[in-house]
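Aggregate trends can hide what the representation actually does to any particular protein. For completeness, the protein is quoted in full, as a sequence line and a line of structure tokens.
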Amino acid sequence: MVIRTEKLTKNFGRKPALQALTLEVEPGEVFGLLGPKGAGKSTLINILMNFIRPTSGNALVMGLDCQKQSLQIRRQVGYLPEIMNLPASLTGEQILDRFASLTGLIDEDFVAGLAERFRVDLTRRAMDFTAVEKRALGVIQAFMQHPELVLLDAPAVGLDLERQTQLYRLIAETRAAGATVLIGSQSLTEMERISDRVAVLYQGSLVAVERGVTLRARALRKIEMRFAEPIHSDAFAGLSNVKDLVLEDNKLRCTLQGEPDALFKIASQFRLLDVISQQPSLDEVFHKYYGVGANN
């Protein structure tokens, strides 16, 4: 296993941040940590990097003890924290050189390619970067040395849509090359899109480990369609993944579970004017499937 934790616990005063977490991450997979703020995602990643120490339990990264062999781990792992402070007076290139000094030589051609993909001018100083460019530079430094393992804490937060797309492509390329990627996120959509497996965390406890395909199949969407003329509900009666169907004049509202293809195929037989698709909140999903959340 690339990552293994056993009964890993971390308390901040009387507040538990992780509660007896036992988890295994396999080589060559994209593994997601999904949960709301305070679920324990960042705490786990920080323990793996030995930035904080557990109250009890143990953790191994690539067979190395996170507390006793943390320097060896940091030399082999790409890491992007949720919040990254950059030296304002240094250029992007100088910042990357500083990070590389911990682990070895930079693949300059690869870095140049990443800078082009993420539209970061490495000759400019960090003080002149936009917030999006700073986050993009953080992504570059996490991947720049082809690490065997990459730990990403909310990597897409702060990126624009184009750079998010590049991030997801880079993660897929890294996985295809045989490396492992661990991602902490509050975004169910993100986890559905890129993860092979997902650990569902809530208030420091492991609620479930799901496959990404399972999350995609379970995905809930609130759909509203507006047609040019009134339609009859019988047209949609045979769709097993459509729930709570309501028709009012020329508007249809429903909850869709899983893929929308069949619903849209039927809708396309009518004069469809527009569609609004909204995913339920993470808390709603947690309550529905795992019995935890606001209503629990």
